Amino acid sequence: MAESKEKLKSEIKEELRSEGFTDQSCYQYISSSRRIARFKDKPSSPDDVEIKEWVQDIKAHLNTRKFKDREEAAAFIVSNLAGKARKEIIGRGIEISTNPEKIFEILIKVFGDGDILPVLQQRFYEYKQGSKEDLLSCSLKLVELFDEICVIREEFLVDRDNTLKGRLAECVRDNSLKRELRRLNLEQPRLSFFDLRDRAIDWIGRSDQNQKETGTLQESAVQNDEILKLVQEQSKQIAQQSKQILQQQQQINELMRGQFRGQRDMIREVRGRGQSRGRGRHSNRYGRQSEVRKCFKCGSEEHLLRNCPQNQDF
């Protein structure tokens, strides 16, 4: 065990010397027998640890070990780094490698998503509940965003509950729920974030029941309105169809009258031609045309020669 400690100490000294630091400028810490996964680089396989998980794990160890000062804690952090991550921190100099907060910030920035504190704070304070997101998922997302901030700045943990409660009251989608959460924050400030969230979920359940009952009545009213609109539309369609049928009937009547006038004029014309052709002729009882009998003396059709009044002159 002693040999492994000395070997690790020698490795750290050699790396610091290669970067231009002397033995007096570095403070080394040798980890205990409890092994911690050493962070090397961005995950390349599902089994590799992510930087945010590693930072949280390291912070848990820092809290349990109770280091005397910041340099000792920083040495413990560096001792659990390897590969690119270790070179990144040592290469930035003694000012970074002896400051735990700076080490975490650099590691998250370089080997994480590239998020820095202002970006994380903006993401937290601009977060809004999605249209298909329930309150449980919304509250857990807030906790996740806030914890990402605390990974870089632990001092934000002091007012964690109040910050989360305030953001929950502002990020929810329903305006009525916003007013209820604000009221609870004012009237019961000692409620924890999760107690506030649970009360909000209960309130939503009661509100949903009332909305269902109201929704049933509104749905019936809407259905009645839709039926009335449908009847009105059908009445309009029937009136329009009746108007179209009347117009078509008028057009048919006008066409028939035109045809009748044309046929009548044609009949008259035919009859006129027949009369002009049949002058001086008359039909007998069999319908045959025969010569009209006239008086040979005066030419009258009313009598024959033997009955002509002009015979008296002879």
From TrEMBL:
Entry annotated with the keyword DNA damage: no
Domain CCHC-type: start-end pairs: 293-310
Species classification: Eukaryota, Metazoa, Spiralia, Lophotrochozoa, Brachiopoda
UniProtKB keywords: Metal-binding, Zinc, Zinc-finger
Protein source organism: Lingula anatina (Brachiopod)
One Gene Ontology molecular-function label: zinc ion binding
Name under which the protein is recorded: Uncharacterized protein LOC106175855
The keyword NAD belongs to this UniProt entry's keyword annotation: no
Domain of life assignment: Eukaryota
